[in-house]
Amino acid sequence: MELNKDTVPRYLQERHAEIGYFAADAALVAAEVGDGNLNFVYRVFDVANPKCSLIVKQAPPYIKILGPAYPLTTQRLTYEFRALESYHRLAAGAAPIPHYFDAENAVIVMEALGGYQLLRDALIAGNVNQAVPVQIGRFLGRVHRETLAEPERFDNTAMQAITADYVFTLPFTEHETNFYTVELADKVARLKADEAFLQKARHLKTIFLTEQQGLTHGDLHTGSVLVRGDSAKVIDAEFAFYGPVGFDIGLFWANYGLSYFSHIGDAAVQSALKTALVRTWESYAAAFQSGGKTETLQHIFHTAVGFAGMEVLRRIIGAAHVKDIEGIADAHRKLRVETAALAFGVSLVKESERIATVTELCAQL
């Protein structure tokens, strides 16, 4: 069953006994929301009380943005639902509450977050709320610490393989999905021929594919966090897998870093973004370290630095760029931003084992 905005209300009404959120006789209306590449997402609300709403997310057996010619397992929503359950159990309030899961039709029904916006959009506007990185760091620290024995529940190999290719390999080959500003061509060519860099990239990919530490969100960028005031909610966990938890920290850092470069010329915003990087790590370490995991924490830090570098690079020369930079209208400014970000990404990958503190990380910006 493939849902659309006309059939979603009936779908919920037919499952009223299992979900029980709306009144049995409520008149429901649906609207498609979100701009995700993989899944269909609908907000369903009661006509008589529009604030009474739920989110319905369905995974088609293909990549939504590309169509049926590009198949993709619907199991991705099974792992997302399991992740939401774990998040709700270990860090209540840090993610939408899951209400219902239909494995046969690959549907999750979850809490609707009215009044929230994407963290990425807030950062583009220059709004850097320091409560957000503190919350995200604390959330990740708790989840990573408490999921050290759940590998069988998050064996999400199909989605993990996609990430491995598009973050660690394809951006550094001649692949049809890559694109970048033409003036970067010489720098990109040198990077693709830099054996020291490529060796580090291969090493990080091996860690990504083989190291098993805990429940890893797998796609924790600033477009996977919704914010409202001091509240932050983590969404879109279809890439969740059991792996190297530094990947989550690295992606989150990287996207704050990309925002940093996009605000070149605005010292106040850039300073706030550096502070956010520091607070993410400080709150993460405090939450994760209860129980004295100092050695593990240092390893997580080093891998996070390397993963951050890979994420920055693939957002500049790979298949999936970010609105923070793509939205810059001035071509000269955009090139300046991309050049700086490219150098930052390379330095993080090459120096990941030497950068020992979050202060040293910020010094690379």
Helix and strand topology:
Blueprint: H1 8-14, H2 16-19, E1 28-32, E2 40-46, E3 49-58, E4 62-63, E5 67-71, H3 76-90, E6 98-102, E7 107-111, E8 117-118, H4 119-124, H5 131-146, H6 157-169, H7 185-192, H8 195-210, E9 214-216, E10 225-228, E11 231-234, E12 241-243, H9 246-262, H10 267-288, H11 294-317, H12 323-326, H13 331-350, H14 358-363
Report on the architecture of this protein.
With 365 residues, this protein is of the alpha+beta class. It contains 14 helices and 12 strands. The protein has helices at residues 8-14, 16-19, 76-90, 119-124, 131-146, 157-169, 185-192, 195-210, 246-262, 267-288, 294-317, 323-326, 331-350, 358-363, and strands at 28-32, 40-46, 49-58, 62-63, 67-71, 98-102, 107-111, 117-118, 214-216, 225-228, 231-234, 241-243. It has a 5-stranded antiparallel beta sheet, with helices on both faces. A 3-stranded antiparallel beta sheet has the order 8-10-11. The chain has a two-stranded antiparallel sheet with strand order 4-5. A hairpin with a 2-residue loop joins strand 2 (40-46) and strand 3. The radius of gyration is 20 Å and the shape is globular. The N and C termini lie far apart (48 Å). The model has no long low-confidence stretch (mean pLDDT 95).
